[in-house]
């Protein structure tokens, strides 16, 4: 429960700082509260520097030296008042403290001027008084001026009187009649003395000049008067009319009135006197609460020469009327700004909020005040002392329900009519951090198009905290996570900690990541800090950003060669085109079409990609059928790819096969998901047919002038001439411009699960097979590596190997400078060739064959490439079919492929039977090691076929 009391102390001005004034806990017998450091506390900061209080026990001491004259000027009593709250075991007590500052004699009397001048007529009567400027002493009581003294003279004396305001006034009194002819000038020193011990004094010199004027002065009917004036009197109100009589005649008897020269400016401002009638009127509004009485010194003088004025003292007393409304002063328990006080929502019932003080400057019933509080039942007024009240709480507060209270304090006096003062008082409930920030929902779903610009805006999440201030300031952060179980979440998105806006860090790829889950934590800035989380599911929306690409047949420079039987009937499936698109949905749905077909021989299924002959082939169609095919997706802004397919009309039978195995480097295998290059098979029966074709071509070489070499010969010659190829020996023995024969494999078209010769991606090698005209003399084949060609010539047995090795620097094109060709299968002498010019190969010597009848072409070995990652080629006695413009993609397709398990097999040599040995492909190389070169004496020589690989 709250209590209040009043206690009084005194101290002297100029007491040293630290001088003890009183002890509240001892004098009022108050037991300290639980917190000894804050048992006593000032209600407000007024006079903190003058009076100090020890919070532990309420010891009051002088804070700094007190100058009473500065603190309470012209006041008989100087009292310092303040309020102290004592937190005792009984809760708390309000103490009103009054400290009287007593005066010491620390100021000397002072005159406003060091000297003054008087002019006195010689005929003035004895007893004439001459008012002097009063001395000023800032001290009060007995330390104030008590007497005046003058230097010795036989003409003048001094008299001291006390005015209504308590001031001591001095007047010179004429003691003896003056005689200007005897003495016309007097200098008198007037001394003012106070009542201190020892007394202090101040002096002023008075210079008196004696004039010779008329000898009668005006005389007032009354030397002093007293009048009353209501403070609400209007301007121009007549207070009184004074009259003075002068027995002289003429101008010496004409009297004029005025305020004495020494009158204060305040008197001259408030009052006016008519110089001829002597009427005193109100010149400005007076206020009882400002000053309650005024002293008017009116003088009258005639218009004659050497006129001597006379004076009359008029005392004007101001009468109070009820013209002031009560004043309300509010002192909050806590700091207050802009009329707003604060209280924590954790405050208990009956907690002290503010101190209300009322006052009325009027007197009597006009100054009695009644107070009341309106606005909310959670607060009430409780009297502390006199006209001072406390605002206390009546219940516990909750800021989230009522954050602010607008109270009205009403103070009304008892005057007639009464005056009422109304003051608004706002109390804001300060916040406690009792609410965490909350998201509008636990899971958010947003969609973002792939290929977005890094740094682009995704979404904004907002968490609300019903608290206020720092307790409601929400900051956001990403909770660490991973995308696809690997990359940190922070490498995909970033979050603005202030706004909660989510931005992309990278460009999203739907084909890599389809959805990102982002967990966000919202935390307030309170103590203790509270937080909550929400989940954002970012769904990546697919765009048509990937063009389709043809996977079968394998392309090189957007073209490929595909053999087709010369006797293919209508409806023959010449090729199954396959393509892929990394996009999904409609963006990944593909459609095939024929873009160019000069002879209009083919049609294509838009969905399956099957190319079918519409008409049977004849020699009129030529040896090369060029068709441009295209594939496009069905997405918005469709993307497309195209390729040129050259169908090479051939007489080979599908079941005849020659086998070629190419093993890629470890690096290449890792990129194309295949361990070895696929084996190519060509049938033995086809080899016999090719030998016949080459024989016809050889015969035509010697008869260039003849247009016909027989039915079979003409057909074969036409095939090669239309291909712009020749098996004739060049005039330059180092040049070869003959046809390049494709070594390929054909199996049933139903083998859709087989892998093509070069996998899903084009290889670097371009492979050609040649049928020599003799075992000892034929055209050389050049192998290109960077800016040189290397050719290894040797005779090998059937079990010898030819290895061709990639550099291992990734997928290589057939003319890449990083292709490195080496082999340890046949360590023979080799020749180096100049760069290829105009699609021909320049050779330094002629390729020859050994007695075994077989050939091995091995490029120059590169030390950077282990021979185990070499390309290995096997061959039989069956001549290969002519294949111009062959490339690695020529063996791609279901009709020209082999199973991937066989592609990983170790190359073996084959006998001249024209059939494949059983168990082919069962032996595998280990990466980085060289297989031993098998040599079996007595084994049958290899076939007279040559297979060359160009890089």
TrEMBL record:
Q: Taking the first listed entry, what is the main subcellular location of this protein, grouped into a coarse class?
A: membrane
Q: Which domain of life is it from?
A: Eukaryota
Membrane topology annotation:
Single-pass type I membrane protein
Compartments annotated for it: namely:
Cell membrane; Cell projection, Dendrite; Postsynaptic cell membrane; Presynaptic cell membrane
**Record's Pfam families?**
Cadherin, Cadherin_2
Per the record, its GO cellular-component terms are: dendrite; postsynaptic membrane; presynaptic membrane
| Residue ranges constituting the Cadherin domain according to the UniProt record | 4-111, 112-220, 221-328, 343-439, 440-550, 556-659
SMART domains listed in its UniProt record = CA
Start and end residues of each stretch annotated as Disordered:
801-845, 926-951
Give the function comment from the record.
Calcium-dependent cell-adhesion protein. May play a role in activity-induced synaptic reorganization underlying long term memory. Could be involved in CDH2 internalization through TAOK2/p38 MAPK pathway. In hippocampal neurons, may play a role in the down-regulation of dendritic spines, maybe through its action on CDH2 endocytosis.
Annotated protein name in UniProt: Protocadherin-8
The species this protein was found in: Scleropages formosus (Asian bonytongue)
Lineage, top ranks: Eukaryota, Metazoa, Chordata, Craniata, Vertebrata
């Amino acid at each position: 429960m709250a209590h209040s009391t009043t206690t009084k102390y005194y101290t002297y001005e100029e007491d040293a700082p630290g001088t003890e004034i009183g002890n509240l806990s001892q004098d009022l017998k108050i037991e300290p509260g639980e917190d000894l450091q804050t048992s006593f506390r000032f209600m407000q900061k007024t006079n903190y520097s003058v009076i100090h209080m020890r919070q532990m026990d309420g010891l009051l001491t002088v804070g700094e030296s007190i100058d009473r004259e500065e603190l309470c000027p012209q006041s008989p009593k100087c009292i310092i008042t303040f309020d102290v709250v004592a937190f005792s075991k009984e809760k708390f007590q309000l103490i009103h403290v009054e400290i009287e500052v007593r005066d010491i004699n620390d100021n000397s009397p002072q005159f406003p001027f060091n000297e003054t001048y008087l002019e006195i007529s010689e005929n003035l009567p004895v007893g004439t008084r001459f008012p002097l400027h009063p001395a000023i002493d800032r001290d009060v009581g007995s330390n104030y001026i008590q007497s005046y003294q003058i230097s010795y003279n036989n003409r003048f004396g001094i008299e001291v009187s006390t005015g209504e305001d308590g001031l001591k006034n001095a007047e010179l009194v004429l003691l003896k009649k003056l005689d200007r002819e005897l003495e016309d000038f007097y200098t008198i020193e007037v001394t003012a003395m106070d009542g201190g011990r020892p007394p202090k004094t101040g002096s002023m010199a008075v210079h008196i000049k004696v004039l010779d004027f008329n000898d009668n002065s005006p005389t007032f009917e009354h030397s002093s008067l007293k009048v009353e004036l209501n403070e609400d009197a209007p301007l121009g109100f007549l207070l009184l009319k004074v009259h003075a009589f002068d027995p002289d005649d003429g101008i010496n008897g004409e009297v004029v009135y005025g305020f004495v020269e020494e009158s204060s400016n305040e008197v001259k401002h408030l009052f006016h006197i008519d110089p001829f009638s002597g009427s005193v009127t109100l010149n400005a509004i007076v206020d009882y609460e400002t000053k309650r009485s005024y002293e008017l010194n009116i003088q009258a003088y005639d218009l004659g020469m050497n006129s001597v004025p006379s004076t009359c003292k008029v005392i004007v007393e101001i009468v109070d009327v009820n013209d002031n409304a009560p004043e309300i002063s509010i002192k909050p328990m806590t700091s207050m700004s802009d009329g707003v006080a604060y209280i924590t929502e954790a405050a208990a019932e009956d907690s002290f909020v503010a101190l209300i003080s009322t006052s009325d400057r009027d007197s009597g019933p006009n100054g009695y005040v009644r107070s009341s509080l309106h606005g909310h039942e959670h607060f009430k007024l409780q009297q502390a002392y006199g006209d001072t009240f406390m605002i206390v709480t009546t219940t516990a507060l909750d800021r989230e329900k009522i954050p602010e209270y607008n109270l009205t304090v009403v103070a009304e006096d008892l005057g007639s009519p009464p005056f009422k003062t109304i003051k608004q008082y706002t109390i804001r409930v300060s916040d406690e951090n009792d609410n965490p920030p909350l998201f509008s929902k636990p899971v958010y779903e947003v969609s973002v198009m792939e290929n977005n610009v890094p740094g682009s805006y995704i979404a904004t999440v907002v968490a609300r905290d019903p608290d206020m201030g720092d307790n409601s300031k929400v900051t956001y952060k990403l909770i660490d996570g991973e995308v696809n179980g690997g990359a940190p979440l922070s490498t995909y998105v970033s979050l603005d900690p202030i706004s909660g806006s989510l931005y992309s860090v990278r460009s999203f790829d739907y084909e890599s990541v389809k959805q990102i889950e982002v967990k966000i934590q919202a935390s307030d800035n309170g103590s203790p800090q509270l937080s909550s989380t929400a989940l954002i599911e970012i769904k990546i929306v697919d765009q048509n950003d990937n063009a389709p690409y043809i996977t079968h047949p394998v392309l090189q420079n957007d073209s490929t060669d595909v053999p087709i039987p010369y006797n293919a009937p209508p409806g023959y499936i010449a090729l199954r085109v396959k393509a892929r698109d990394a996009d999904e949905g409609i963006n990944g749905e593909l459609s095939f079409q024929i873009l160019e077909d000069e002879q209009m021989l083919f049609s294509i299924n838009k969905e399956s990609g099957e190319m079918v002959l519409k008409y049977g082939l004849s020699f009129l169609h030529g040896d090369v059928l060029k068709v441009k095919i295209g594939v496009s997706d069905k997405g918005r802004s469709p993307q497309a790819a195209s390729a040129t397919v050259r169908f090479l009309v051939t007489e080979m039978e599908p079941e005849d096969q020659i086998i070629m195995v190419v093993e890629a480097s470890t690096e290449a295998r890792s990129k194309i998901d295949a361990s070895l290059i696929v084996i190519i098979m060509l049938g033995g029966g086809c080899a016999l047919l090719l030998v016949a074709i080459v024989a016809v071509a050889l015969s035509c070489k010697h008869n260039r002038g003849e247009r016909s070499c027989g039915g079979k010969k003409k057909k074969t010659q036409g095939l090669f001439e239309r291909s712009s190829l020749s098996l004739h020996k060049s005039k330059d023995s180092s040049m070869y411009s003959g046809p390049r024969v494709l070594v390929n494999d054909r199996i049933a078209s139903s083998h859709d699960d087989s892998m093509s010769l070069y996998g899903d991606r084009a290889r670097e090698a371009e492979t050609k097979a040649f049928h020599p005209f003799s075992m000892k003399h034929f055209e050389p084949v050049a192998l290109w590596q960077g800016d040189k060609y290397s050719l290894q010539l040797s005779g090998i047995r059937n079990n010898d190997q030819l290895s061709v090795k990639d550099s291992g620097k990734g997928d290589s094109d057939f003319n890449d400078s990083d292709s490195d060709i080496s082999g340890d299968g046949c360590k023979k002498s080799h020749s180096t060739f100049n760069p290829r010019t105009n699609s021909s190969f320049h050779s330094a010597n002629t390729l020859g064959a050994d007695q075994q009848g077989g050939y091995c072409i091995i490029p120059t070995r590169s030390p950077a490439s282990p021979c185990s990652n070499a390309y290995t080629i096997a061959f039989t006695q069956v001549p290969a079919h002519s294949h111009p413009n062959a490339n690695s993609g020529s063996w791609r397709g279901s009709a020209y492929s082999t199973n991937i398990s066989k592609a990983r097999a170790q190359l073996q040599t084959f006998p001249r039977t024209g059939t494949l040995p059983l168990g082919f492909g069962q032996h595998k190389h280990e990466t980085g090691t060289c297989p031993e070169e098998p040599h079996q004496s007595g084994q049958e020589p290899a076939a007279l076929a040559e297979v060359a690989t160009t890089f």
